[in-house]
Amino acid sequence: MKNQIANKTEFSELIEKHQAIIHKITLVYANGQTDREDLFQEICLQLWRSFPNFRNEAKFSTWMYRVALNTAISDIRKKKTDIHFEQLRDNDRMETEPSDEKEQVKLLYRAISKLNRIDKALILLWLEEKSYEEIASILGISKTNVGVKLVRIKQKLEEMIFKLQ
Amino acid sequence: MNDKKLKDMWNKAETLMGASDYESPAIEQFISGRSNDTTQKIKNMIIFDLVLKALAVCALAVDFVFYFGTANIMAVTVAGVAILLPLIFMQYKLLNRFLEAADNGQTTRDKLASMLTYLKTKFFTTLLSVSGTYLFGFIAGSLVYFYTTYGYVRPLDGVDFVVFLTFILIGIVLNFVVNQGQVKYHIKHLETCLKDLNDKNLELVTENIELQRKSDRSNKILLALVLVLGILLLVIVFKNIGFIVK
To answer: Among A27, B168, B202, B210, which is least packed by CB within 10 angstroms?
Structure first.
């Protein structure tokens, strides 16, 4: 893949295809629309800069998660990382959603926003249907550790959602 | 709440948040932009310092030509270049180390651990090396100034000398304090993340840092010596002390 991508245009097209990954990460780590855009931009830049070191040993999406999450975790520009739920846009698509579902999704995000940066990464990868092995290879911890931590984080999320309801 | 329900809620969230899709030209603009990342600032600091050191070497070479025949000034320029060249090499090695540590393509654990190790062991050395540039840059620049203005090195009196030295020392100390403050916050953040990843991680990295610190001590001593030598050269130039036969 690396040999095929010779310039910025080709790389941008590749990112365009996989941008959903970055959007999900910015939703969890950034605070409001402007911060989300800033983080999106920073992640794209870091992906481009890290690309020369990308070895085809890992899947492109795994590598992308790694770079994007490392960028989000290391980002210390903003101290507050809570998502402002008041800022959620009531767009057309949202209007069609039943209101209790809308509330539940907000609750889930509010609960995730209260987790620490590492737990956010773990739960995000699990929600994205990544295997324990893949999560371990992205974060650099053992599969057993991933399992143990996920059980704890899910419990924590459940408790928080219950309290927030 | 079961796993399926959590995942269903997650999948609905994407629609709810209404994230806008970017076209390829917008992404191309993003990757051509400037980074606001803290690591980028450290990288820029090291690169900027490398450029300044290279300029100082060039200025000293010019000084050598200007003052050809004045033995003590020629000796000072040669000594300055002889000290700066290894410093440039060392700073270049530090830059490579930093780029390795800052690579986001590593696993999260490795990224956090390598950045923490760099900041705790090599950053002080980097700052010492940057401080050295102030001194040599000042010496090289002043020699050019004196040549173009007076045609010779005007000896400074006691008060002038104290004022110059004070300004340089304040520059060095300020540079230290500002950078140390920023890095301390960064270190704290990295330590917290490493601890959150796995309690044992931080212990292992701390042990590794202690080992590296011991091996890095000689570098720090060497750099501190360079700073002292730089100040000595400054005294030699501006007090016109001939340490080599005129």
So the answer is: B210
For testing contact with chain A, the best of B21, B31, B32, B204 (most A CBs within 10 A): B31
Interface contact A42-B37, CB threshold 8 A = yes
Three-state DSSP at A88 gives coil
Number of domains within chain A: 2
Long-range pairs for A101-106: beta carbons < 8 A, 24 or more residues apart:
A101/B12, A102/B16, A104/B9, A105/B9, A105/B12, A105/B13, A105/B16, A106/B16
Q: Work out the burial of residue B174: count CB atoms within 10 Å of its CB; fewer than 13 is exposed, 13-18 middle, 19 or more buried.
A: exposed
CB contact under 8 A, A40 and B28: no
CB A108 within 8 A of CB A27: no
- List pLDDT tens digits, range B65-87: 999 988 888 888 998 898 899 88
What confidence category does residue A96 fall into, taking pLDDT thresholds of 50, 70 and 90? very low
Domain boundaries, chain B: 39-238
Joined tokens for residue B8:
């269903």
Pick A70's closest partner by Cβ from B12, B27, B111.
B111
Classify the phi-psi angles of B151: left when phi > 0, otherwise alpha if psi is within -120 to 50, otherwise beta.
Answer: left
Question: Do residues A149 and A123 make contact, with C-beta atoms less than 8 angstroms apart?
Answer: no
Q: In the numeric block, which tokens belong to residue B132?
A: 């050295």
Angle between helices A132-139 and B108-117 (to 10 degrees): 10
Q: How far apart are CA A36 and CA B78, in angstroms?
A: 53
CATH number of the CATH domain containing A122: 1.10.10.10
The per-residue pLDDT for range A112-140, each reduced to its tens digit, is: 988 999 999 999 999 999 999 999 999 99
Mutate which: A73, A130, A160, vs B, most B CBs within 10 A:
A73
Residues A67 and A99 in one domain: no
Q: What pLDDT does B60 receive?
A: 94
- Whether A85 maps to a domain, the answer reads no
Answer whether B166 touches A (CB < 8 Å): no
